[in-house]
Amino acid sequence: MSEFLPPIETLIEQFRRLPGVGRKTATRYAMAILDMPAETANTFAEAITEAKTAIKRCPLCNNLTDGDICYICADTTREKVICVVEDTRALMRIERIRDYRGKFFVLSGVLSPMKGIGPDQLGLDKLMERLQKEEVEEVIVATNPTIEGDTTAAYLMKLIAPIGIKVTRPALGIPVGADIEYADEVTLARALRARNPIT
Amino acid sequence: MSEFLPPIETLIEQFRRLPGVGRKTATRYAMAILDMPAETANTFAEAITEAKTAIKRCPLCNNLTDGDICYICADTTREKVICVVEDTRALMRIERIRDYRGKFFVLSGVLSPMKGIGPDQLGLDKLMERLQKEEVEEVIVATNPTIEGDTTAAYLMKLIAPIGIKVTRPALGIPVGADIEYADEVTLARALRARNPIT
Fold this sequence. Notes:
Two copies of one chain form a homodimer. By secondary structure, chain A is an alpha/beta fold. Chain A folds into three domains: 6-54, Helicase, Ruva Protein, domain 3; 57-168, Dna Topoisomerase Vi A Subunit, Chain: A, domain 2, CATH 3.40.1360.10; 173-199, no CATH class. Helix content of chain A is 43%, strand content 10%. Chain A is built from eight helices and six strands, in the order H-H-H-E-E-H-E-H-E-H-E-H-E-H. Chain A has helices at residues 6-15, 23-35, 38-54, 71-74, 88-96, 124-133, 147-160, 185-193; strands at residues 56-57, 64-65, 81-85, 103-106, 138-141, 166-168. In chain A, the strands form two sheets. In chain A, strands 4-3-5-6 form a four-stranded parallel sheet. Chain A has a two-stranded antiparallel ribbon with strand order 1-2. In chain A, helix 1 (6-15) crosses helix 2. The longest helix of chain A has 17 residues, at 38-54. The termini of chain A are far apart.
């Protein structure tokens, strides 16, 4: 049922495109826009078009960039390792710890029969091309430790191992500082099985 | 800490203007915009500016309108009653039940010492002007039954009663269909005190 004037309905529909936003939240957002001074709302609209114009995906790794290739791919001092992540946020999270000195590759998605995402939709052509052109010693598949992330990692393993490049995943275990009493069973079991000698 | 490229930071800051949106949600929204095809994002931006251009506040009642005065104020068959509400959504909620046939007045806010909102910020000049010019038999103060809504209603009562116009509030009580076992104490107490003979 259309209950608002058409321009408001259109605005509500647009807000519903955002992740996790239903009709009720979208309506609240639309009302907030209508309550803003015209100039503020225009600045909002411009920020959307300007971000879309200025920000592109790096043609090599899919990282967000305002230049031709991203600052990571442009950095010739990076190690010959490619860390494959699910999205740009994972990339940024890893960059921020300033401990990893290799390169990245951002997938276009993860395998998910539920959402109908198959191997063709992960954007792997570009990754495989890089593995052939660049000198790469190792691919770290840092997809999330979820069913989808694990399945994607297994698929990448099968695809890359035959080329003779080492494929690894980040270690799973109890988080540093965590209370073992509250660790979930699966994590705890894996952590015990993957135990290490004290050095 | 600025962790994104400037155009992305700007977009995140704009999304934070929306009600209830913090840094994390704003970032998720900004990322969704960056993941959209350019055309989709432009349509989004246009919806904002177009809604702002097309939709105005009715000069008589502050209802949203795409014309000069809103369809309610333009309706000469409406009863000589003004229902004062906190916002446009309350107005639409009441309109949708198709039971109330009077007019409306949308406040610009409710009294709130916490948020520093005093009587001057409610936009009451316009309401008082209407009460003088229009033939009004009753003002129903349908602000929310909260401390702020009740305080605002009491203030309006003091302001309007001297003019000789009847001021009322909607009845409080147990909602139709509710389970008395789960009714809150305050509501239940008020409902019992305001009991009516069975007719």
